[in-house]
Amino acid sequence: MNNNLPKAILFDLDDTILAFSESADPTWRRICRKFAPRTGGQTPEELFEAIEASRTWFWADAERHHRGRLDLRSARREIVSGAFRQLRIDDPDLVIEVSDSYTSEREDMVAPFPGAIETLRTLGDKGVPLAMITNGTAEGQRRKIDKFGLSAFFQYILVEGEFGVGKPDERVYLQALKKLGVEPTDSWMVGDNLEWDVEAPQRLGIYAIWVDFEGKGLPKSAAPDRIVTNISQILER
Question: Which are the contacts of 94, defined by CB distance < 8 A and separation ≥ 6?
Fold first, then answer.
């Protein structure tokens, strides 16, 4: 240990280092205000509610979630298409325009959480090897990694779309640890997903830190080793 830090730390990307989910609702609302006048009488709020119901349904299923995160553009088109069916709107071209406009605007909204880059830099200065494990497409995740220069902070980056499988498959954690040359019991996993970043790593003996970035509190069913609301707090030991 280095000043109570482990021999290595594994990080998630979205909603851990980068603020990703918090921009979803504001972006959808802007898109709904923009396109509602072209839907034949729907208000922006009615359009937003239909999209919200469709995306909640879409992402609730594990198989759809896996398929969707590997092709977000198609997933968002499917979500908007479902909302349009609910509202009895028959306009396939508008489905594409709405969903692709959302995709473009959403990517522009993603940014690091306050203090995240400084935390990664400090860990590097302290000599703690870091790996990133992120689910999603190679193109989409690498674009975010490159945009914010995150590769400079990590000795290894594993992207689901490149590696072939993603979290919570135990092979991804073991691969990252192998690349860093450490044992599970000498490492931490830091992330926002209770299944992928807490429960699965804990089964391997990894110390799991849950990032409650929304401040909603812990469900009774989960038991992370530590809870933070921002990754900068992992330095507060």
Answer: 35, 38, 39, 84
pTM given for the model: 0.88
Q: In sequence order, what are the beta bridge partners of 208?
A: 189
Q: Is the Cβ–Cβ distance between 136 and 70 less than 8 Å?
A: yes
215: its two tokens:
């401040």
Helix/strand/coil percent split, the chain, to 5: 55, 15, 30
- Side-chain-facing half-sphere of 115: CA atoms under 13 Å: 9
3-state SS, 205-220, equals: CCEEEEECCCCCCCCC
pLDDT tens readout for residues 18-69: 999 888 999 999 999 999 999 999 999 999 999 999 999 999 999 999 999 9
